[in-house]
Structures are given as structure tokens and as C-alpha cells.
Amino acid sequence: MANDKLVIFDTTLRDGEQSPGFSMNTEEKLVLARQLAALGVDIIEAGFPIASDDDAHAVALISTEIRGPVIAALSRCNPADIQRAGESLAPAERSRIHTFIATSDLHLERKLRITREQCLEALIAAVRQARGYTDDVEFSAEDATRTDMDFMCQVVETAIDMGATTINLPDTVGYSTPEEIAEFFGEVRGRVPNADKAVFSAHCHDDLGLAVANSLAAVSAGVRQIECTINGIGERAGNASLEEIVMATKVRPDRLPYDTGVRTQELFRTSQLLTEITSEAVQANKAIVGRNAFAHEAGIHQDGVIKDRRTYEIMRPEDIGVESTLVLGKHSGRHAVKRRCEQIGYDLSRFELDRVYRTIIDLADRQKHIDDDDVTRIIESTRAELARTETAARPA
Ligand code: KIV
Ligand code: ZN
């Protein structure tokens, strides 16, 4: 039996882009959108057109050029937002209007200062108006996981009745835990009579570092769309990281039997492109795309990987588009040094290897990173020195 499809909704250009340090100009957004299409995401949320003329322009440009993924645009539940989103998306081959309103009492009373009835009226009008532009309408209940359950069910049933085809219930402030969010989606889907008429979606923030775990727990409760971003960028601590979600399903199909359709070999390139565009590096030990994610420095680990990579690698670096790196440092073993020398084209005698190995370990005490140029220099000078000693020792 085929695995269930898990829809990947990428919001790097919207939720990601709106966080400090990650803003992009229109040309940069277009470049990233091309790469997201090459990566094979299902939906690209290209922006929030009412936010600025630049945002609207970027959404229109991406809608004009990008083919393959659905192009989505965000709008609040009000007529001007929806009109702007609908117009910006007009050139798209396939478009989605993503309209949202907060539903928790905290947000309704303290932020929006409206009643639950007014919230329902706004969402009814918004979904109806959005359907005038496209059949593909997503409704999001901001701060869903802190919303009263009876009201949550009423909101979801109403949005589906009005024609929303995707229901996104965000953990806007990253407050949920995995068990809790699975129960939450299970209860909503169980209680809402027309739940089978929509795809349910999770949008988890990472304030407690649980965004990926929460998203995957939501999938276990019937959610079939995950909203996520490259490198996990997004408001505050960020959103669920796309590469972690995708690779979790690829590496553990026994536990997560879902197909994302993402070309995983493009993951590293996409991550790198985003860091180049924004000049914001990912942490070295970030799962999947961090500099150290496939780097082995400890001698025991390097020895294991050389003998059988599965000893310390649960996924193949090339599946993400990364070359495996045995990092040379003071913890490296002789095997790793020999392998690196071979990789850069030197076949050393045992005697040469002994010398080279000792020089590298010495250097590693003083210098953090040892690159291929260092290794080449060490080999060449070792060989030159050995040749000199041999000549000096030869009888005249
Ligand atoms: O975090 C959130 O609630 C959002 C919505 C606008 C979808 O980003
Ligand atoms: Zn968000």
C-alpha cells in the first residue's frame, strides 16, 4: 500500500522572512522561490501582500514565474487584505489564499478587542470572499492551541462550511507539547462533523524547541500538511525546520510512513542559498544542514565510519547533497589522516604517514581547522625533508 502524502507548505518567504535579520528583496525572494520549486515543496507561501507594495510585487512576480508548486499568499480576515492577496496571485498557475484570524480569548479580548461572534462573522466573510478568487482556500486560527475547545470546533466547522479546503491550527507561541498537540488535533477532527472535507495542517513555532516534534505528533493525529521553513527560520525561535521534517520521514518510514515528494539532494543547496542571501549562518551543530551534521572528528568515530559508515551515520550525506567530511583535528586517528591524504591524491608509505600524522596532530593543537591546503603543505614538506635526509645519508 502506498504511503500517505504529507503536504509540505514552505513559509520561508513569509513567516521566515518576517523575522529580524531575514528580510529579502524581491529579486532574492524570486531566486529562493526557484530553488524551493527545484526542491519540490508542494506550496510556497510567497508573502503577505497587504504588508507592503514590495511584498505584493514579490508575490506577483513569483506567481508569474514559478511553475509546479501552488503559490500562497497570506491575508487577515478583512476585505482589503483578501483583495490584495487575490490580485497578487492572479498570474499563478495554481494559487491559494491563506486567510487567518486569532481565535483564543486572550487574542480576541486583549489584541483584536472583538467578541467570538465577531470573529466568526469575519472568518465567514473572508473565506467566502477568498473563494471568489480561488477554490484553494486555507483558513488559519491563530493561537489555536490556546483556544477554547468548543469554540475551536465551531470555528473549524464554520470555515469548512464556507469552503475552506485546508484548516491550519497553529501553535503560534510554541507552547504545546507533542502529546498535547496530538490530543488537540484528534479531538478537533473527532468532534467537527465536516472534518473529512478538509486537509488539516500544523504550523508549529519553536519557542520550546519542540516545533518538529509537535508537527510530527500532529501528523500521528491525522494532520496531512506541515508548515515549515528552510533552516527553521521564522518568528522568534523560528518555525519547524523543513529539512528535519522531511529527513525524519525519509530515515524512519517504519515510524513515519509518509511521502513528502521533496528532492532531498537539494536540501543542503537550499539551506546554503538561504544563508548566502540573508548572511545569517545556521548553527554548526544544526540537524541535517549544520556544518558538523556529518562531520566526524573523534578518532574512534572516524575509524568506524571508514570501516562502515553506518556505525555513526544514520543517513547518507549525499542524500542531502552534502559531501561526507572526516574533519582532521587533534582527535583524529591515523586511518582518517590516511583517507584524507588519499582523497587529495597522495598515496603515502607507512613511514611517510607516521610523520605526516604526527605533524597534523601537532598543528591541530595550535590551529582549530585543518584544511586540504594544510595537509598538502605538510605532505610536501615531509617528503622534501625525507628526500634531503636520504641524500645526506648516501655515501659520496
Ligand atoms: O504563527 C502563526 O499563527 C502564523 C499564522 C499567521 C498562520 O504564522
Ligand atoms: Zn507562524
Characterization of the model:
By secondary structure, this protein is of the alpha/beta class. The protein folds into 2 domains: 275 residues, TIM Barrel (Alpha-Beta Barrel), CATH 3.20.20; 95 residues, no CATH class. Helices cover 47% and strands 14% of the residues. An 8-stranded parallel barrel has the order 2-3-4-5-6-7-8-9, surrounded by 8 helices. A two-stranded parallel ribbon has the order 1-10. The protein has a two-stranded parallel ribbon with strand order 11-12. Helix 2 runs parallel beside helix 3, helix 3 packs parallel to helix 4 and helix 4 runs parallel beside helix 6. 44% of the residues are buried. The structure holds 3-methyl-2-oxobutanoic acid (KIV) and zinc ion (ZN). Zinc ion binds next to loops.
Give the SSE string.
EEHHEHEHEHHEHEHEHEHEHEHEHHH
Query: CATH superfamily name of the largest domain?
Result: Aldolase class I
Low-confidence stretches: none
Major beta sheet, strand line-up:
2-3-4-5-6-7-8-9
Shape from CA axes?
elongated
Oligomer: single chain
Largest sheet: 8 strands, parallel, barrel
CATH architecture level-2 label of the largest domain: Alpha-Beta Barrel
Quote the average pLDDT.
95
Beta strand %:
5-15%
- What does the radius of gyration come to? 26 Å
